[in-house]
């Protein structure tokens, strides 16, 4: 994963593989942004792989932003993020990563 932070605007540009190895770095970048910026945005258009751990970090990012009284927006997503979200029963858009309505986990 490559992560570029704009400390002036709170914008994150993330590219490469978002996997379990990158999850901690992603979470730290988000939390740092929430501490120092009124809004954090994430451009994920160049992410070429994503797993459940990274998707959980993105989902938690929305909760964390709210707890800090800040905003978190995903400004662009790659097809692999949409596919991973769907496989996990989630949807991803510019405002949130959320459970799809009517999704049931088959056991």
How does this model look, in words?
The structure is a single chain. The protein is an alpha/beta fold and 107 residues long. The chain has one domain: STAS domain (Transcription Regulator spoIIAA, 2-Layer Sandwich), CATH 3.30.750. Helices cover 40% and strands 36% of the residues. It contains three helices and six strands, in the order ββαβαβαββ. The protein has a four-stranded mixed sheet with strand order 1-2-3-4. The protein has a two-stranded antiparallel ribbon with strand order 5-6. Strand 2 (11-18), helix 1 (20-36) and strand 3 (39-50) form a beta-alpha-beta unit. Helix 1 (20-36) packs parallel to helix 2. Mean pLDDT is 88; it is low at 103-107.
